[in-house]
Backbone:
């Protein structure tokens, strides 16, 4: 499906309120995971995708909230996945796996992260800015999307937390 | 900055917005290039439009067709070290009187709390 069609599909979903199936990512390189994590393997769990990059201040400012969600809800069925998508070409260092690993350690990130060096997953989801979030329900459908920095306890944090709880409560 | 003669060569600057990276093209680019010359040296300054900030964690870059990449930098940053507090600059390499290439920057609009990648084709003649 082309990017234009995906964007159209997103708009159509937003207009109709009908959740659309989350597209399957195919990132080969992962950190904090023994093997690549697939969407299919997460059926029955709620998945929060965080599109980020370590050079983005808004992204790293949001990480404590995501670490908090992971700590509170992983055992209840939430899988948090970072999709690390560089802004610049490789000369920026954003593509380097060692640099990403150091960022994970610096920000105490223990949830899985995919390297999205070719931006395929970014394009697949029609993402426009860093950080962005996609919340997928237990049936593999996109239920909520959004972008922008937030902090532990603020209104946006509470909104995302309420959405996570809502989807975790579903059968 | 005082050592640079203050003749911004905007009239000799051709700058075309070819798309804001991962964003649809904005009606006006959030960035502008200012050119200042002193003797044989020419320096480019990257100026953010009002309400926009330039990410200092990812220094703006000018990719030149020969493969070289020139990075912009500035001494003054915001207190959180995240953004430039003054226009970052870069010297045109080799004292060249003309340069063209692809300019990349990571920018943030006030109140948006996100980063956006901007890519522009530029041509500068001094």
Residues:
């Amino acid at each position: 499906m082309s990017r234009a069609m995906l964007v159209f599909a997103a708009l159509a979903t937003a207009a109709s309120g009908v959740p659309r199936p989350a597209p399957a990512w195919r990132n080969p390189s992962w950190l904090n995971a023994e093997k690549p994590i697939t969407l299919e393997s997460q059926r029955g769990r709620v998945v929060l995708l965080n599109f980020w990059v370590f050079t983005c201040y808004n992204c790293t400012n949001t990480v404590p909230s995501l670490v908090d969600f992971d700590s509170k809800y992983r055992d209840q069925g939430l899988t948090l996945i970072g999709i690390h998508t560089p802004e610049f070409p490789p000369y920026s260092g954003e593509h380097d796996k060692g640099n990403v690993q150091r960022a994970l350690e610096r920000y105490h990130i223990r949830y899985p992260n995919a390297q999205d060096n070719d931006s395929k997953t970014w394009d697949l989801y029609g993402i426009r800015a860093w950080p962005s979030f996609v919340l997928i329900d237990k049936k593999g459908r996109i239920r909520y999307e959004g972008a922008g920095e937030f902090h532990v306890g603020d209104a946006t944090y509470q909104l995302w937390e309420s959405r996570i709880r809502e989807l975790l409560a579903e059968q | 900055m005082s050592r640079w003669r203050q003749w911004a060569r905007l009239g000799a600057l051709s700058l075309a917005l070819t798309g804001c990276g991962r964003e649809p093209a904005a009606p006006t680019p959030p960035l502008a290039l200012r050119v200042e010359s002193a003797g044989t040296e020419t320096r480019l300054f990257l100026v953010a439009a009002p309400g926009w900030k330039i990410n200092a964690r990812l220094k703006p870059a000018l990719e030149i067709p020969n493969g070289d990449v020139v990075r912009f930098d500035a001494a003054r940053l915001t207190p959180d070290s995240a953004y430039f507090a003054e226009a970052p600059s870069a010297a045109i390499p080799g004292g060249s009187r003309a340069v063209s290439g692809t300019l990349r920057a990571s920018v943030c609009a006030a109140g948006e709390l996100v980063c956006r990648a901007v890519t522009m084709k530029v041509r500068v003649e001094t």
